[in-house]
Fold this sequence. Notes:
The protein is of the alpha/beta class. The chain has 2 domains: 2-68, no CATH class; 71-253, 3-Layer(aba) Sandwich (Rossmann fold), CATH 3.40.50.150. The protein is 33% helix and 20% strand. The chain is built from 9 helices and 11 strands. The protein has helices at residues 2-11, 14-28, 70-82, 99-106, 154-164, 193-200, 213-219, 229-233, 235-240; strands at residues 37-38, 45-46, 50-52, 58-62, 90-95, 111-117, 125-126, 139-144, 165-172, 223-227, 249-253. Strands 7-6-5-8-9-11-10 form a 7-stranded mixed sheet, sandwiched between helices. The chain has a two-stranded antiparallel ribbon with strand order 1-2. The longest helix has 15 residues, at 14-28. It is globular, with a radius of gyration of 18 Å.
Amino acid sequence: MKHIISFIIRKVPRKYLQLFSHNILKVVAIFYRGNKVACPVCRKTFSKFVPYGRNPPRNNALCPNCLALERHRLMWLFLKERTDFFSSPLKVLHVAPEICFIKTFEALDNLDYITADIESPLAKVKMDIHQIPFPDSTFDVAFCNHVMEHVEDDILAMRELNRVLKPGGWAIIQSPMDHSRTVTYEDKNLLSAEDREKAHGQKDHLRTYGQDYPLRLEESGFKVTPVDLVQEKGKDIAERYALPHDEVIYLCHK
């Protein structure tokens, strides 16, 4: 299973995975029946989650029902327990929307929910994050996860998210990090897909973030508050929901 998943992720374009993987995994879910782990997003339980990732796939990662990964389950718990996202009237911009969230967020009566991406077939608005086509101070909340490592100018993209937030608005802008690095590594001379994959682990990654990632968010104008919810929840909850062991949520306020 691990080798198959790794091959599919590396070879099949992301937009096709977004369109078809959900139906395939519904069948896979039959073989993962059980009650050892639980997905807080869809409230289903399984013997374990499906392996997911490139080199190598991570064990116990992907919910076969809603396609939530470790970071999505963590974000869901954060939204539920630390914000008024599910109750207050909010205008929300969701860049590169994750399939595990879209239908649920669209169904919430309290949200004016807009999805956007430059190529995703799941998004309603096609846009370049370097030039977000909305006026200043439009949104109360913005989500943009695992995007900044792909874009040409991440600081500009972060500033654009800041610009379209209302004063007092907040954003969650998560990115993969190499915690062993003090400083983010990027080299604009890496022009070939092969060189980028060797340097960053993926052909479409333009940088590898280090411990200075929250400083880059602050450079774009945000006030950043780190929240280590996994540590706060404790081992039992982290294992039950298969949360990421090394991910801190960087809550960004305008």
